[in-house]
Specification:
Helix content: 40-55%
Strand order of the largest sheet: 7-6-5-8-9-11-10-12
Radius of gyration: 29 Å
Shape: flat
CATH topology of the largest domain: Growth Hormone, Chain: A
Strand content: 5-15%
Number of helices: 25
Distance between the termini: 46 Å
Structural class: alpha/beta
CATH architecture of the largest domain: Up-down Bundle
Number of domains: 3
Length: 751
Amino acid sequence: MIALFTLAVFLAAALLFTMQPMAAKMLLPQVGGSPALWNACMVFFQVALLAGYGYAHVLARRVAPRAQIAGHALVLLLPLLVLPLDLGARGTGVPGSSPVGWVLATLAAGAGLPFLVVATSGPLLQRWFSATSHPAARDPYFLYAASNAGSLGGLLLYPFVLEPFLRLTPAEDALWPLSQGGLWAAGYLLFALLVFGCGAASLRLAGARAGAVEAAPTVSTRRKLRWLWLACVPSSALLGTTQYITSDVAVFPLLWVVPLAIYLLSFVLVFSKRFPFHRQAWSLALALLVAAVAVSFLLMLRDRGFTLLPLHLATLLAVTMVCHGRLAAERPPAGRLTDFYLWIAAGGALGGVFNALIAPVVFDSTAEYPWTLFLACLLRERFRAEVDSPRRRLTTVVDIAAPALVAAVVSSLWALQSSQGAAPWAWMGVVAAVVPGLLCLATVGRRLRFALSAGVLLVAGWWLNGDLGSNIVRERTFFGIHRVVKVREFPAFSEGQSEQAAQEFHVLIHGTTRHGGQDTHLSRREIPTSYYHRSGPVGQIIELMSAAGRLDDVAFVGLGAGTLAAYGEPGARFTFYEIDPAVVRIASDRSLFTYLADTKAVLRLVTGDGRLELAKAADGTFDLIVLDAFNSDAVPVHLLTREALALYHRKLKPGGAIAVHLTNWFMRLESVVTAVAADVGLPGFIRADRVSSLEEAYEGKEDSVWAVLAGRTSPASRLAEDPRWLRLGSPDPHFLWTDDYSNLVRAVRWR
């Protein structure tokens, strides 16, 4: 019987974790890559999970066991009315200025019922098992470990198995009709059968435990709030760590999977009967790791990328193990099991809402990350018992004095280091970071004292990282963090040149990726820099089209710093499509960048998803379409599918061309473009360009990769005469992305 219940809760959790990315991907072409989609999906599924737990709680508390099973059996049949999952005709767009209401309504109609029913299984099945006469029924929480193991399995299953090998929905001419939606429906049928079996087994083995379950003592409000807090902090830490490492440390495809896997694994471990969980050992590990993170902030090592990645992931593991370990230790008797899970779900949702909806508005950086580390330190296990009343005042005084001492030492040492003009990584900088770190660790035996001391270090290190530098502007939106920094470039000097040749640039950075820059000197500010230099591929494309008189109407998907506006000539009409309003504000600010203000072309700035907004233009409008949304390491897949490229092709005038920016450290987008272009029937060329002269380096040019797709009547077809341009090779069908299929794992550069 244990195997039956374990398999049921495992499968249910796997179904939940595969439905969420699948549903969001179905909606992506219709809504675009706006935060409205991701935030609406997150809110919907968290509310649905809470509703499922609430249903299980009410059913378990108010309905007799036999009626519970009979009623829930009928509820299990209802999702069959909407399966297999298909959330509408993709690519039609969403009416109205805000798609949030449409997304919520579509999810509720197409995915809400099956998700809600599956979400009830964890607490409800455990409640049924706890009422049986089985020897393990007294402590059914091992099934919660199985449930989280299922969530972990679903997390890994979707990006590595389902997405690479199955379409979202079956194609009409497909030889293999199975799809993601169809497989999910089959999984649901198996899940329903398992639940029927669990219900029958619980009725057959019902014993004296049922009365004991119903007579379980009540739980105090204070204890419930503690459950909420212990669930909220690791949920917030998960999202804060993910946001931090993917924007400030190392942007890598699918990197978000690792923190979420750690979060789920911690639940599996602490609720498992076989894992030897030592609460104080993990509490000590958390203190050591948080101190190490704070010292790394003080040493200004944020830009060390993958070197520091293990430290941040280990810290997240310690946070989740400490908080979830306390939850496991405080789990109530089986009679209050549904209360327990309801408060855990509420805490997880609270942490998610704070990080996804509130933090981007409140903070201009990923400050929720150190904030959650501080809160986690407050939840550590006590190493010493509470002192008696005569000594309590003295303890309180020391608790306040210790972090004050740490703050005084930090400020004094860094003031001394700054007065000597030493670089932050010089020996004095190391002393100024390590000494306060050791003082902080000296308080590790006292929970409040250490938390306050660590908080001082985290705040000081975060301030030094954020404000002691060349940031001119820093703005955070739901798309991430945008910074404009002042950079001094020193090209390799030849004989007769002095260091005064060094240039000062304003550079727009999103996360760790540059999105354009401009020389601040008046005589050189019209020079297109970085990936857009005149000697580079895009400069050559624009020159060819201009010489042929085919540069009257140009569409740019992606604005960045507005560098491409430097190519504007009198009479030309340039339309920039940019999804993030903050980027439009930054590029339009003449104190930061002047490309938009200086251009000779007539400009039109359109805020919104590039594909959806471009679809509103009349067919045959543009001479050239430039796709510049792929030079970040986070790729908007829906902009590079077969359907998207067909749309771009329709918007071209006869003889027009499409230029695609493919510079990317981690993705083999050249293979994707080759496959998609061949499917649409567009010949193409590709050029990998390098900085080849001192003059180019002096003007801020950077290496880049561009592809051009154009018919034989286009002026761009003359690129075939240039040996620097290579014809697109033979297409690999595995790289053919569509609105129904994309294989991100295969496109990753693993070496």
